[in-house]
Amino acid sequence: MKEQELRRRVRQNLLDAGCGEALAREFWRLFECGKHGEGLALLAGHRRLLLERCHAEQRRIDCLDYLIYQLEHSETFRAERE
Length: 82
Prior knowledge:
Radius of gyration: 22 Å
Mean pLDDT: 92
Order of helices and strands: HHHH
Number of strands: 0
Strand content: under 5%
Distance between the termini: 65 Å
Structural class: mainly alpha
Oligomer: single chain
Number of helices: 4
Largest sheet: none
Helix content: over 70%
Shape: rod-shaped
């Protein structure tokens, strides 16, 4: 695979992963300077951020699930539905 095609694919993957233009540029800068470890650390940091957001959203979903369960099993809610 030619370098230009590799760059295009990696850039697209970074954007698809939500990295944004600035992070993608910084990654390439590090990569081109031979600082591959720092580039990987940059990506790992972004991955951590995404995972934290995912966990936060999961906690919100869990709260809604609990509320729905409580409402569906409450006498007041059941009486109103019947």
